[in-house]
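Researcher: I'm comparing several assemblies side by side, and this is the next one on my list. It has 629 residues spread over two chains. Same procedure as the others: predict the full complex and return the structure.
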Amino acid sequence: MTARTGPEAPSLDRDVDASARTELPAAGLGAAVGTSRRRVLRRLLRRPAGVVGIVLTGTVVAVGLLAPVLAPFDPFAVVGPSLSPPSGAHPMGTDALGRDLLSGVIFGARTTLVVAGLVGVLVLLIGVVVGTVSSYLGGWADDLLMRLTELFQVLPRFFLAIVVIAFFGAGLGLLVLVLGLTSWALLARVVRSEVLSLKEREFVDAARASGASGARIVVQEILPNALPAGTAFLGLILAQVLLIEASLGFIGLGDPNVVSWGYLASQAQRFLRVAWWMSVFPGLAIAVAVLGLNLLSDAVTDVLGTSR
Amino acid sequence: MTLGYVGWRLLQVVPTAAAILLIGFLLIHLAPGDPVLALAGESGDAEYYAFIGDKFGLDEPLPQQLLTYTGRVLQADLGTSYLQGRPVAEIITERVPATLVLSSTALVLSSVGGVLLGLYVAARPHGVRDTTVSSSVLAVYAAPVFWLGQLAILVLALGTGWFPVQGMRSPGSDAGGLAALYDVARHLALPALVLASQEVAAVYRLTRVGLADELASDHVRTARAKGLSGRRVMLKHALRRPLVPVVTVIGGRAGHLLSGAIVIEVVFGWPGLGRLLLTSLQARDNPVVLGIFLVVAFAVVLANLATDFAYRWLDPRVRYQ
């Protein structure tokens, strides 16, 4: 790997990157991946979609993490007159019970973060395992797992979540479980095709020739290179998950013990004529989170596409 | 499209349908409480429960029960709503037309709208027009559909008074014929537009990318070289191939479209499956909730199947492994 002190030369960079990936011995690969990760971030920051995506997603994450510090009130506490429009004391107004909407929206970010984070972990786990096993084993195992993946792609997740919650009762844990267990199909397909192309690469041959076991090759050589593309799609999946979660909250199937943006918007439905703010702000928050994830995923896909 | 292909593809649907049935069956048995509650609702009497238990073979061993359940569902017997005292299948069937009208109108609007927007920006990729339209489409796609509905009510219905806020017909209106049609269309306009605006993204993206590829292709260059006008080249030569994925994306979007329709119905009080779902959820009428899941899941599978056939018919080069 050449020292990168001079000014950026994107086209040259790409060649260096490609040769580093294929010709470096297995020991140097970790370093190569580390450098290319920094490069991906820099390229990301050069695209408007990347910057906006990072800012929007970062805002939601920060607000969610700092919710107790940022929120002026307890989101469930009655702190003002009911249905009062946005004002200095309540920048997003209050709801029918006199609860502060800004605090609700801020704590809603926390719920969104929990759902997205936990569903993301589940999706990543299942998607990566199914995609890797399927592509690495091939044959009937591949056929079987891909049939299963197709089933989960066709299955209407929103409706399945509705039935499960109707039968088992609303709760954040169950919600995460249902959405996580049903949202991994796209990721499995992406990981599968990534692994299929990576396993023919020379650095994998090199590792194999040096006597590394199959599992070791997958974990140490293939997965670190397959994951970037996977995470780009994970963003798209999570954006969809957030929309489904919001819709579930909107039809009254959210966890009654936590504030969610969908729940806040559902409270607005009956007061649309008199309290526009109850609908506008929670909806805007959802749109910001979803748009952020979509833009970020698009930009990452774009950057990875050009760096290959 | 050979008969063998059709048969082979139909056969492929069987495991999917079986899996959906299995999910329904497992839900009934895994849910807390007696499975009979899941099939008969929560407010029945002992005699009625015994009747339902007998009909679905609930005292038989599980594998036998799965067979009985499958048989029942295949005969369109989805259990009984005790709340309404009627078969679930009957209740659902009554609501299907309203949902179908809403979602098919949105489907047509979004497909035509997506293609038109794609044509509108195609001439200059990454120009001002393209950037504006692309980012607006992306923003609308990111917005939750119920929020778009609420905003439409706030701005277009309450704000201008042009559109009714709720329902499918004006209250007390018993007009027939054209007047009735106009009344329904006025009520349909907003929910269908909102639903379509969210669905437009997929079609728009496909058309835009497809047209960009086509405009750079040899046959389009030939058409231009012949001296054909820009519009003629665009419509007769460039648009043809990108339209194939636009048609075939419909199947893949069926689940998304129906989910959106359900939520939009709640926002606009449209009397379809969504309204039924909401009232059933509130009344804990679980047999109806499960019935709606099964019907929608099968509909999505069928839509995918139909799309595959359409794909194969429109583009005979497509081969499946």
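Model: For your comparison table: DSSP finds 13 helices and two strands in chain B.
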